[in-house]
Description:
By secondary structure, the chain is α/β, with parallel strands linked by helices. It has helices spanning 14-24, 49-58, 62-67, 90-94, 101-112, 158-164, 232-242, 250-257, 286-289, 297-314, 319-348, 353-366, 372-384; strands spanning 5-9, 28-33, 44-47, 75-78, 84-88, 97-100, 117-120, 124-130, 133-138, 144-146, 148-151, 171-184, 193-198, 201-207, 213-221, 264-271, 277-278, 281-283. Strand 1, helix 1 and strand 2 form a beta-alpha-beta unit. The chain is globular, with a radius of gyration of 21 Å.
Amino acid sequence: MTRPHVLIAGAGIAGPSLAWWLSRRGWRITLVERAPALRTGGQAVDFRGPVHRAVLERMGLWEAIHERRTRLGTQAFVDASGRTLAEVPALMMSGDVELQRGDLCQLLHERTREQVDYRFGDSPTALHETPEGVEVEFEQHAPQRFDLVVGADGLRSNVRSRAFGEEEGHLKHHGFRVVGCTLPNVLGLRRQGVIYSEPGRGVCVTSARSEDEARALFVFTGAPLGFQERSQDLAREAVSAAFAGAGWETARLLEALRGAEDLYFDAISSVRIPRYSHGRVVLLGDAAWGGTLGGQGTPMAMVGAYVLAGELLANPGAHTRAFERFEARMRPYATRCQEGTSHVGGFFAPRTRAGLFLRNHIYRLLTTKPLERVFERIVTHAATGFVLPEYVDAFTPAEN
């Protein structure tokens, strides 16, 4: 039987995860990434509950991830004087295990680079489906035909826009913007985090793996962003304008922001798309169900990769059926997890003083001893609300 040849767009988390599963069964994988090299920056990502753990264990990643975990502890809401108003446990913000997104990207790349044809600095420019496959044109490489195409290229998926139409109708804006970056640890944090909020703006600072570094998220109300607006210089300007006159240690953080080299700037949005596939093209991870922040994007990408690979391998030569079963399994789960994106802006930056007071009061109550089990169920219910399919025969490694 001819080995299927699949093009995967996106070398973040979803793409290499899918490549790992399929390449073990002998499928030919070409993985194209717009960036000139592997993206190793980004904020921390976390995994929580038995569903996430099961996928990581089946990929042989559980121990490797624990070796690289951040070990972040509690995070505190503070007022302008630095006084703690409420604390949230590590489970809420960091799950069962947390690591830097870049570390996970490197782990996945190391485990797939020998079997997968990685092409950095390139991207599809056109997709033409034929009875034999999908003819793909590229920015750099010569046109090539593939049996299937997978768009695992993020919230603003290029593959999605090529196959499904322009992105404007696919993204729902939730009224906030976010800037994330690495800063010098000017607050002297050690395995802890702090969140300071004023109406419509909030900053979260947490310790990083290196003691002299910290991770920062600036969240503030604002309109959607155009693609050309997301530069690092514009990010600094937007944060400086949004947090002008803010209290607490904000001035020190804004000063440190001037030297940050890994700024991420975006609007808080989530993908709303009526279907995950079109012909021989299927979307995976953020391209299908992503949210900018708070939607469990990384673990959902890895769970989705497992399910998509399982359905493709369990339905050989029947991609339409495999795509339909993949969507039927994943959409309800992804939709529940995605709900976090619509609330995350208001969590970090409540719009009013009344909303700020209510947030602090609620979390003081939820983190008391009588309600700790209730709180645990609240922060894990979306992640655990899925029965992971078994694909035992499908995932048996192919013989060389």
